[in-house]
Amino acid sequence: MHSTFMSDDLYSKNLQAIKKNHPYLLSQLDERLKPKCKIHITGSEFPNIYVERKNVLSPHLYPEDDPLKGVHELIETYKDVKGKVIASYGFGLGYNARAFIKSFGKSNIIVFFEAYPEIFKAALSVVDLTDVFNNKSAKFIIGKQVDFDSVFLTYREQLLTSTEHLSFFMHSAIKLDNSWYENIKFLFDRYIEGRILTKNTIVKGWQRFIDNRFNNIFPMLDSLPGKLLENSFKNIPAIVVAAGPSLSKNIKALKEVNNRALIVAVDTAVSPLSIERIKPHFFTTIDYNDFNYEKLCLDKNILSDSNLLYIPEVTSKIPNFISCNQKFYFFLAKYYSSLFNELLDVDADHLDFAQSVVHLAIKLVQTMGCNPVIFAGLDLAYDNNSDHAKGTVLHWGNNQKPGKNQVMVEGIDGEMLLSNRGFRQMISTCENLIKKYPEVKYIDATEGGAKISGTQISTLKQAIDTYCKDGVDIREKLFTNEKQGKVKNFEKRLQKQIDEAYRYKKILNIYFKSVSKIDKYVHKNSKTFKGPEFFPKNIAKELKIANQITDKFNEDQFIHYLTDILAQFHNNFYEYEVKKIVAEATKNKKDIFIAAHKQQKYAQSVKNSALDYIIDKFQKQLKKSKRLSQIEKKFKDDCKSDEFFMETGKFYYDIEYLEKAEAAFNELGDSNTQKYLYLGFIEIKKGRIKEGLNHLNKSVKSDNKNLMQKEQFLKDIEKEMVKECEKPVLATYKNILYDRIITINPDNCDITVKRKNTLIAEADLLIENSDFEAAKEFLKKVVKEREFGKVEFLCRLFVVCIKMGDQAESEAFLEKALGIKKEKAIEIVCTLWEKEKTVIDEKFLQNDVNYIEESLDMWKPVKNIIKDWYYFKARIFAGKNDFKAATLMMVEGVTIWPENTKYLTFLSRLLIENGNFDDGVIFLKEAVKKDPCSAVLWEEIGDALFLEKNYKTSVTAYENCIMALPEKYNIFNKIGDCYLYMGSLDAAKASYKTVLEKDPEHMGAKKRLDILQKK
Q1: pLDDT tens-digit map of 643-660
Q2: What is the rounded CA–CA span in Å between residue 401 and residue 399?
Q3: In this model, does residue 880 exceed pLDDT 60?
Q4: What is the DSSP letter of 590?
Q5: Which phi-psi region, left, alpha or beta, contains residue 278 (left: φ > 0; alpha: ψ -120 to 50)?
Q6: Cα separation of 688 and 681, whole Å?
């Protein structure tokens, strides 16, 4: 054993390449962790590592004959891989690294892991690895201290978050510490999962993220930075209530808390808490989707005493619609926080970790200095396939089964539990948050679920009894002298940002002018252009200008404000990055310049789009702010008048800041009927339909003015209706409104028709909800009171009565309808049957024979009017293998409906399957005459005959199909198979050739023809 291969010059050469391309790696090389065994560099044909360690089968790190044993086969298997993150565990002396870089380095990111810095240092002294370190697609994680974020900087993160990754264990290089490599792989897999989740979130909802920030500007002016709560509850216990399935088991224990601890609930947990009449002191929300608002769309009084903590990216419905005690916010990211701090004239923090609403809740209690922090309902795993507690908006059966996104996590009792990738990533973030405040005691009182490192296990009752002993005056501690609503100079601050954005657009115009000149030169001299150093002076000058602007933008603070906004525009950046990596690998100066130039040009165009976006958003906010200023200026000396509150309310209603709008309209006197109108719309927009309609009914009953305007408002209302069960309530309001309009103007035919349609809709909803008694009484009353639309109502009475089993009364109503207007009555009955037919189709899929038979018996009185009754009845018989009854049923149906090709085809099928081939063919030919598409049955007949080896008759069936449906040329392939089995090889060849004329890539015909032509 010796070290003759060690070279200081080689070490310096490798180190220079590392300093140039991987500066983050230098800190990792400073570690002094000693390996668990002695390591020596051996002198053989190639440098190797000799391991002095007991129970090591092979003392050398690499096979003596070939250090890349197995690597070449691995590379060959994955040689076409592109756009991936490749993780190579075990760097050793870097032999595999060079092979990987050569094969994968052009269009992938490769991460090399090495447990021991001293092995890595040894590699620098014995192997020239400059080609590895000069490749920018390579990343290195050396030693036990791991910080993935410091490794994956710049826009290469787009590559990282765009794809799954591959993991390769270099078994010869990991033998010194297999357990470390297994663990680091686990951590890296979770990191990649987190990045993929982040990327998916960006792709799915980034536009909404950014839009919400600006839609929440006015509520943020009325909210306070979460930073102001710092240490406000020092050493006071807090209970963070999440909505995991275990919350259903111990939620009642929270009733005993009162003011002995601060209760912070995530938005999903608010609903089950409200069912138990438990009011949280804070509720937190983070999701950008409007659906998130449904979690909090409750009675007015539930959250009125609670405090809201949100991020600007949350759906604007929450801070705009919900009335609560106080509102607080944290910024989500550092880049835009500077911009919004300036706009809002505040000094607010941004979050370090925030993947979910529970992380926001943890950040809140940590900011307030709470200690201990008790977790309830924080399962982050499934409990008997449930993932949320009962009573949550998300609870709809909770039937979670193992699948693509399911993973297993360790539970608090050591058993493995079913979870998913999102939950697993949330566990990691919770653990990181806990590490940031190690002085705080964390109690996991979830009573189930995943293990969260850094917590103590307890039941919720024990935790409350042990730590929540003294009462706390929550209101007093939350009081702050900080002034809300910093509207003063807001317009000036907005205008400043608009002006700043326009200034940068001017700079970008200069950039694009220079780029245009460069592009023209490169295009004109594409054949002779060798690289930027060969540019003439005038083009070199333009390049210098472009580069100066690029450098300025990379360093400028305002451009950093745009970083988050850019994400929604730069979806193609990864594509340019890969091209740049590929070009750099060629070392062709021309290709490298063009790839980098295109990438940079695209980057600046993205900035330009972001500037346009932010100008548009700021100008809209400026317009709103000026309108509010005009109102305040107009009523400066008299701000308590009805006119002031009406205009203020309308302003906030128009910008959908409904909390403020409601407050303004409530200041109006009760005699003001417009008050009820707008309060009604506000309640409906908030999702409280019945309360809203009560207000609207008051407005209509007390005011005959502007009724047509109110009728127009119905369109706005109906857009807000989200549940079918709420629409009958809307019908009530419509009826009152339409009756009032008709009373004033009885000749208004348009409203009369709308009135009739409203009554029909209300009746249909009662029928669909199977409330037949109510539907019958309602329809009888309408028939008695109104002549207009009587046929429609009588036909529905017929349907209600047949569903109630009253055949005599149903026939009486039908007879009345037919007597008034026969054709119209038949049309309506058929339309109503179509609804029932849709249900029957679904029931066939569910094999619910009982429902189908009962329904068909009900509709029997009109079997000769409605289509498909005989067809469905025959299907039931056929399903019971009573083909004789099914055939008789279809014969009767065909007699009544001779033009119905479905009947003819089904009858044909029944006859043929029952052995009556000749009669079946007669009906099939009749069906094909009426509809060529019925010829698909010929193909089925041909297939059946082919299986019976009746090839000759099978050909006839196939030919009948192709004559009716020439586009089904693939039938010739089946005809060819028949001839092949019959021994008619020429006919078979001709058939296969016919298929290939239509579809040259038809594999079956091509294969058989090749075989035949070789014979």
Answers
A1: 899 999 999 988 989 999
A2: 6
A3: yes
A4: H
A5: beta
A6: 10
